[in-house]
Amino acid sequence: MQVRVIYFGMLKDAVGRQIDDVELPERSTLADLVNDRIRQTPPIDNFRTVLAFSVNQEYAQLATVLHDGDEVAMLPPVSGGTDTHVGTASRCSIVRAKIDQQAIMDAIKHPDDGAISIFDGIVRGNTRGRKTLYLDYEAYEAMALKQMEQLAADAIANFKVRDVAIIHRLGRIEIGETSVFIAVASAHRAPAMDASRWLIDTLKKTVPIWKKEFFEDGAVWADGEPFPEELRTSRDLAKG
């Protein structure tokens, strides 16, 4: 059988390409595939303790059995957005144009709301003491949008807020521009503020979006947030 492997972020740079089509025996598992890639593509071995994996845009465990035609993504820690994809119920989108914060606010407001809490993620001009020129974001777009829509649905259910908008931008983003914008509408301020904080913190750990930081003296992929323990299947690879 054949599966397609997609590499992202720093792993894509290390391997030197984004896609491999890999032949495997029938009933191979995700662990079999990863071990095959470690043998065939040595740079992957350097990422044993930080990778997570997805199969057909869903996070997966090493015991997952693969099937012909599956799409497997190898995901370094995320950093935390065709032009626009919009989630109808949750107002989630991934864009390449500048984010229009006021249009989002106008669209989400409702007479029943007593508060809208926002998070506006802005590109700053200094990172760890180095002057930043600009950032460049990339994503596993289909999976990222699916994860964002799930986060919005979970926030609505768990924090009892009325509506959520999450917009993330990809591509080159200049200093002072918005990379991610979150708005949460609710009858009361406390649930809106709590949900907004939870959304950005969880997005930064679980949504497959990566950023590359460009400085005067070079460029690096940003150190990502650690994956939640339940997603870090590669912790088992580290024992091998």
CATH topology of the largest domain: Aldehyde Oxidoreductase, domain 3
Largest sheet: 5 strands, mixed
Please identify the top-level CATH class of the largest domain: Alpha Beta
Q: Structural class from helices and strands? A: alpha+beta
Order of helices and strands: EHEHEEEEEHEEEHEEEHEEH
CATH superfamily of the largest domain: Molybdopterin biosynthesis MoaE subunit
Distance between the termini: 25 Å
Percentage beta strand: 25-35%
Share of helical residues: 25-40%
- How many distinct helices? 6
Counting structural domains, the number is 2
Number of DSSP E strands: 15
Q: Would you mind describing this structure in some detail?
A:
α4 packs antiparallel against α5 (about 190-205). The strands form three sheets. Strands 2-1-5-3-4 form a five-stranded mixed sheet. It has a five-stranded mixed sheet with strand order 6-7-11-13-8, with helices on both faces. It is built from six helices and 15 strands. A hairpin with a 2-residue loop joins β3 (about 50-55) and β4 (about 60). It is an alpha+beta fold and about 240 residues long. It folds into two domains: about 1-75, Beta-grasp domain (Ubiquitin-like (UB roll)); about 85-220, Molybdopterin biosynthesis MoaE subunit (Aldehyde Oxidoreductase, domain 3).
Short description:
The chain is α+β, with helices and mostly antiparallel strands and 240 residues long.
List the topology elements.
Layout: E1 2-7, H1 9-15, E2 19-23, H2 30-40, E3 52-55, E4 58-59, E5 71-75, E6 85-86, E7 92-95, H3 101-108, E8 115-122, E9 126-127, E10 130-139, H4 141-159, E11 163-169, E12 171-174, E13 178-186, H5 189-206, E14 209-215, E15 218-221, H6 234-237
Parallel strand pairs: 1-5, 7-11
Antiparallel strand pairs: 1-2, 3-4, 3-5, 6-7, 8-13, 9-10, 10-12, 10-14, 11-13, 14-15
Helix pairs in contact: 4-5
